[in-house]
Specification:
Largest interface: A-B, 27 and 23 residues
Largest sheet of chain A: 6 strands, mixed
Radius of gyration of chain A: 13 Å
Number of helices of chain B: 0
Distance between the termini of chain A: 35 Å
Number of helices of chain A: 0
Distance between the termini of chain B: 39 Å
Structural class of chain B: mainly beta
Largest sheet of chain B: 7 strands, mixed
Order of helices and strands of chain A: EEEEEEEEE
Helix content of chain A: under 10%
Shape of chain B: globular
Number of strands of chain A: 9
Order of helices and strands of chain B: EEEEEEEEEEE
Strand content of chain B: over 45%
Helix content of chain B: under 10%
Shape of chain A: globular
Oligomer: heterodimer
Amino acid sequence: QSALTQPPSASGSPGQSVTISCTGTSSDVGGYNYVSWYQQHPGKAPKLMIYEVSKRPSGIPDRFSGSKSGNTASLTVSGLQAEDEADYYCSSYAGSLYVFGTGTKVTVL
Amino acid sequence: EVQLVESGGGVVQPGGSLRLSCAASGFTLSSDWMYWVRQAPGKGLVWVSRINSDGSITSYADSVKGRFTISRDNAKNTVFLQMNSLRAEDTAVYSCARGASYRLDPWGQGTLVTVSS
């Protein structure tokens, strides 16, 4: 049960785009279309941003988008805003188990 | 308002036990998978356990298997995590979340478990 691999940090200026990768294996990310992404601000509970690779829950702006290719999923945040500065975690179903990514801190410059 | 509230955390000595509770309000969790996730101070999210709607299917992370037990009481709209043989490395904020189609939403605010002598 190894954690999915994410870059520790990513950054962009307001209005720019940032893409975060999430690399797993054929037993998790590559094997199922059940990748989710969560946003967590300091001291707050995680918030679901993307589920089933590319679907957005109601209320999540379309600036957030998800995709997957092989064993790697990606989250793109377009039109960066100050409030997007947070930690982001991917997750995946892994055949009766569940696994999170290592987390990426997004900084808005 | 859909809400999950955890309780039962605290300070416990190594080898000790704690039972966490996760109470739902604003919705009935009897039809949902439920998850426990933990986050050590300054660290990332780690999945701990999950249970299906009627409690007949459970799974655990290797790090807690054999020590932790997840259960639920749908009549009380509550999910539990019994933690035994606690270790220092179990120190974390433990959060519960509803898990439909493997997406966790909503999450509770969590309860802090500190394992220390």
